[in-house]
Amino acid sequence: MKGSPKEEALRIENMINDSLSPVPYFEMISKEVEGKTIIILEVKKGKDTPYYYKGKAYKRWDTATIEVDRFELRRLALEGINMHYEDRKASSGDLNFNILEARLKTEAGIERINLDILKTLNLYHKDGYYNTAGELLADENDIDFSGIDIVKFGNDINKILYRKTISNVSLLTQFDSAVNIFEQYYIFEEIDGYNRIKKELIPREAFRESLANAIVHRVWDTNSYIQIAMYEDKIEINSPGVELSRKEIDLKTGFNKAKTLRILNCLVDKNIISKTGSGVTLTHKLK
């Protein structure tokens, strides 16, 4: 320590004031430990994001500190004004919800969707406009990156049997279409005597849960599709923008903290809503 504890604390405070904008809320206290004076700096979690160090914003990534990209910077700015990407005004004021209406009729007994229901689902703002979450669940939308890219490989990655990109349609349509494609390749019937027995190469419910996780918890302002890679012995689902360690997460454990509840509540039926977890790369392999 170059000076007294009081002088050193003042020096640290000046460094923070000169380097950070906006200045976060922090406290410093001096403490005697084994005959030595230690200055403890406690920085409180701030809400005025992003915080800049000499004009740049940074984040922790594993053990490194890296500069945030423009998508993350925009996200932090929205959080700083207590707004998420899904809360932004939709690009169109002319949206239809026939698909969502049919789903709500089946699952909740709602005969006809109206603005009051859309407001309850947080898809229509009280100030009189659809938000991005509503646009994502409308029958059609102009959000190009909110799609799913599916590829089915043969016995190696050089052989592509099928490929389809599902975009500019409701997340409900994307979900159902992806499940239908899954069923074409991984569910078959086997004749046993006079009976037809339906068998699954990979559990359908596991795929539905994984896909629901990927859609619900993806980062929506990242310009990238959800990627589904179908192999002969496994399926990999990669949800964009998720910052977790690069490990395969077991389908049955996963994470169960919902981040975008408005989409979660509308996406899938009640049998799978309670099982959805966090958007991660999920892999299921044949035993």
Average pLDDT confidence is 79
Question: What is the beta-strand fraction?
Answer: 15-25%
Question: What is the end-to-end distance?
Answer: 61 Å
Q: What does the main sheet amount to?
A: 5 strands, mixed
- The level of helicity is 25-40%
Q: Tally the helices: what do you get?
A: 9
Structural class: alpha+beta
Overall form? elongated
Residue runs with pLDDT of under 50 for 5 or more positions: 243-261, 268-287
The largest beta-sheet arranges its strands as 10-9-13-14-15
SSE string, helix = H, strand = E? HEEEEEEHHHEEHEEHEEHEEHHE
- Count of β-strands: 15
How large, in whole angstroms, is the Cα Rg? 24 Å
Q: Please, how many domains? A: 2
